[in-house]
Each structure stands twice: as C-alpha cells, then as structure tokens.
Amino acid sequence: MTTDPVSTVFIDNKPLNTVDALVQLSFLTQRVLSAVGAEHDLSVIQIRMLGVLRDRQPGMLELGSHLGLDKSSMTGLVGRAEKRGLVQRSPSPHDGRAVLVSLTPAGRKLTDQCTKEIGRRIIALTDGLATPELVELTRLTDAVVRAAASPVIND
Which residues of the chain have pLDDT under 50? Predict the structure, then answer.
C-alpha cells in the first residue's frame, strides 16, 4: 500500500490512500443501496434503473448506456420491473422502432420512498463531518464524478 502523504487519510490509525478510501466509500454506498433494495425486493441494478428514470424517459439503448448493460440484459431488467408494475414501455414519438421507458405511478412512489431512505442513510454516513468538511467532500466527489463522465477518460 502506498503511503503518499498527499493522498493518505487515516482511519483507526491505519493509512488509507486515495484508492483505498474511494473503494471503501464505494463499499459503504453499495451496502446502503443493497440494504434499501432488499427491503423493497429490489436489486442494486433495479435501484439504479429507478434512479435514472426519476427525471427522464430514456429509450432502451440510452437506459442501457446509463446502467452499463447490453440490450438483452436491459430487456430482462425492464421486463421484470414491468411485471411488478414499476415501469412501462411506450413507443418513441420520434422513432417508430424505439421504445421509451418511464416510471408508472407505483414505480414513482417506490422510487420516491427509496430515494428518501437512501438519502437518509447516506447523510447518516457523514454525520461526523463539520459543515466545511461536508461542503469540501461534496465539491471533491462532484469533481471526480464530472471528470469520470468526461469523454476524455479511457477505461
């Protein structure tokens, strides 16, 4: 493990470098998503899909791109959510071959419940931070997310 002083934080007197700290934060976030999902019989990918659909009505390809899933995986994911009455498919008004996916009223209600619960639990993770630290954490994570979304980044 690298102990670069610029990128090292300490938890329980053990150093975490930037990579370890971000991975551990990801694990905490995934744990919250998994727990909330389990309480509502949803997988993490289903939670992510509902989150994407909160503020848009994408086509299947766009939704698959947001979730990192191929067409066949998207068909199964949307089909399962459709059977539960959470989403609906409708023809695109701009392309007769395309299908748009949107939340149903039941899907919107469940999404709102999950969003509130996830938000409450994620905020609880930051309870020990002072306001300036929370502002800085938000600024830095926003910068990381925006940089990762940039088309310049290569896998």
Answer: 1-7, 155
